[in-house]
Amino acid sequence: MQNIDYNRFLQVLRETKGIHNSLNEILKYDFIYHSNKIEGSTFTTEALQLLFEKNIVQGTHTLDDVQETVNSFYTFDLVIDEVDKKLTLDMIKEWHGSLMYRTKLYDMGLAGVFKKYSNKILGSNFNTANPWEVEDKLSDLIDSYNALQNVTIDDITRFHFEFECIHPFQDGNGRIGRFIYLKQLLDNRLALKYMNGESAKEYKKALGNCSKENIKPLFDYIENQKDFINENIDMF
């Protein structure tokens, strides 16, 4: 990462919330486009802009894809507002409730609620936590993370892998996991390299090839991604 004033970057990121073509908006569109595309969203960056700015849906999408995309804008704002605050269980549940607002999961009463039945991640070599284990395992993971003195990208990568292993919610785990990941990078003033929707298969393969003893596949994937800050250094 180039020699940058990270605190200045965060200041501009906060101050430009709601401003068209600003640093905040550019990051919002880019991050949401890539994170949602990993989950199968068919929104382009241009369609995201139309949806956010004019409430126009361009293209063919499921109702949940449209609603979750709209919700992603508000969830992104919650995440940025909570940069430099301690990560908590309630924070994560609030983000999930925001992301799933008015979706099928919301109608089932499961938005912001830990999963009620077991699920598995297809194509991976790990099983997810049982419903009765979720809260304790997630609390332990958060406590261990918060106890770290100098958080590195290795620590954040490991957290992301273990969060996805726990898979605490019935749906939306990938998106929430990546929102947490974004906050962790910003909290610790690390290079803003996040998962790319164009390489979703490689990202999922990297996750599936990891284990508690070896997170190198995911670490290597992340290291190969672009750094948003370096690419937009002229914005601040």
Specify the oligomeric state: single chain
% residues in beta strands: under 5%
Per DSSP, the total helix count is: 12
Query: Given this structure, which CATH class is correct?
Result: Mainly Alpha
What is the arithmetic mean of pLDDT? 93
Going by CATH, the architecture would be Orthogonal Bundle
Give the overall shape, derived from the CA principal axes: globular
| Number of E-state strands | 0
CATH superfamily: Fido-like domain
What is the H/E order? Answer: HHHHHHHHHHHH
Largest sheet: none
Description:
With 236 residues, the protein is mainly α. The chain has a single domain, classed as Fido-like domain (Fic-like fold), CATH 1.10.3290. The chain is built from twelve helices and no strands. It has helices at residues 6-15, 23-38, 45-54, 63-81, 89-99, 104-107, 134-146, 153-166, 173-187, 200-208, 216-223, 228-231. α4 runs antiparallel to α5 (89-99) and α8 (153-166) packs antiparallel against α9 (173-187). 34% of the residues are buried. The model has no long low-confidence stretch (mean pLDDT 93).
